[in-house]
Amino acid sequence: MNTAGENKTTLGHDVTVTVLGSTGSVGMQTMDVAALHDLRVEAIAGGRNITRLEEQIRKFRPDFCAVEDEDAAKLLKIAVADTDTKILPGREGVIAAAAGKKSSVVLNSIIGTAGLEPTLTAIRAGKNVALANKETLVTAGEFVMREAREHGVSVLPVDSEHCAIFQCLNGEPKERVKKLLLTCSGGAFYGRKRAELSGVTRAEALAHPTWKMGPKITVDCASLMNKGLELIEAVRLFDVRPDQVQVLIHRESIVHSMVQYIDNAVMAQLSVPDMRLCIQYALTYPDRMPSCLEELDFLKAGRLTFAAPDEETFTLLPLAREAVTAGGTKTATLNGANEAAVALFLDDQITFTDIFDVVGEVVHGTESIPDPTLAEIEEADSAARIAVRDKVRSL
Q1: Range of weakest confidence among 58-62, 169-173, 342-346
Q2: Is the separation of the CB atoms in 247 and 306 below 8 Å?
Q3: DSSP per position, 299-327
Q4: pLDDT digit string (tens) for 132-157?
């Protein structure tokens, strides 16, 4: 029931890491962990935020910094000309960073399906992957996990829920697992019905009650699509059936997920809500290192509550279960359609409830290709995005 392959990391201070998406929310928290434990950073990668990349270069002195935006790469190269860090421009630079020679683990927090190719590159280079890019496993999970097994490396979850499950499993064989209990904060609109969501604004959707994350994932939390994507991720990461994953609303975000075994014993992982714990565990696994997090004080935590999700209102969650049950390219279609719809919502081109409707129509209106190649997965993703834009034009 463990993740694929044998882990290659040793003690925390011996770990050398590459951080893809280093300027985003998870990436910056990863750099915090690297600084706390004096981890060697071989390479970082970002998009256009060259101010933050320059700060990271001067603090961590990586060998390489990949900048996907080529114009930004030129500016950064001038800004850090007095350092020894080599600037790698464009998409090719990000791929080169993922295959670096020194790193034992590559943390991938690139947003969306853009993270798939770097994940595969790192795996094929013999690197363990600390995965904060759920779309990799949603769109091509079976393909990715097969590659990890063939190359003898591990895919280590960084999502708080999957990190919790990974810890609760603790190497137990999957035959002993009855179900995975995936907790969910409920997002910004917990308790609201469909009619109450029709006029919600971008700002309201981005007001997550617990976690500080990027815009796309925060909107996914508000629609519960994030939990649908995590359900698919759990199926593929831990090799369980979709009906073995149960989603529970847990507003306090203290129980990060649980595993119920065949004897009905339940193991849970609890902590204050802070992604740095999950990041640190993935980077230094199988070790446990001291943390900068505050202790969980049970006397102050108050009640821990659980409820069933409202799948009649938040229809993307059951849609995700339907997609992973169907298999093939259906999950790539789901993910591509959702990414396109969320981008349109964030650009104020569609309403929040349009996300539910448009994604559902595209997924239900698209045939799935069984046992797809990587090219077929990428084509399904692309076709879904086009279908969403076509439907929105007709609204």
Answers
A1: 169-173
A2: no
A3: HHH-----B---TTTSTHHHHHHHHHHH-
A4: 988 889 999 999 999 999 999 999 99
